[in-house]
Specification:
The chain is an all-alpha fold. Helix content is 75%, strand content 0%. It folds into two domains: 61 residues, 434 Repressor (Amino-terminal Domain); 31 residues.
Length: 104
């Protein structure tokens, strides 16, 4: 994770108007734990990141993509691939033609 991880976690909390105590209660951790995360002394587990993203009203992909910009690229690629897999062959041909037009 990048070095601004804790600061970004703190900014999400502040933007929602929540205190460290409120976030700690929602995540079933201590306020000291939230303070340590926000000050970069502790990293959240995957389980807590999932709960935190739900609390903040965003997906885990959105949260991790904002905390770790390199992840965002793979999340977008995966979402695109998932969408393409649902298309029939005719729709895939149209999409490919459209992409070729954009690339010009």
């Amino acid at each position: 994770m990048n070095e601004n991880y804790g600061e970004q976690i703190k900014n999400y909390r502040i933007n929602l108007g929540m205190t460290q105590n409120q976030v700690a209660k929602e995540l079933d951790v201590t306020p000291g734990y939230i303070s340590n995360v926000e000050n970069g002394r502790t990293a959240m587990s995957l389980k807590l990141l999932i709960y935190y993203s739900k609390l903040m009203g965003i997906t885990l992909d959105e949260l991790v993509g904002k905390l770790e910009p390199e992840y965002q690229k793979s999340a977008i690629d995966n979402a695109l691939w998932d969408a393409i897999k649902t298309l029939d062959d005719e729709q895939k041909e149209k999409l490919l033609t459209t992409i070729k037009i954009w690339q010009k």
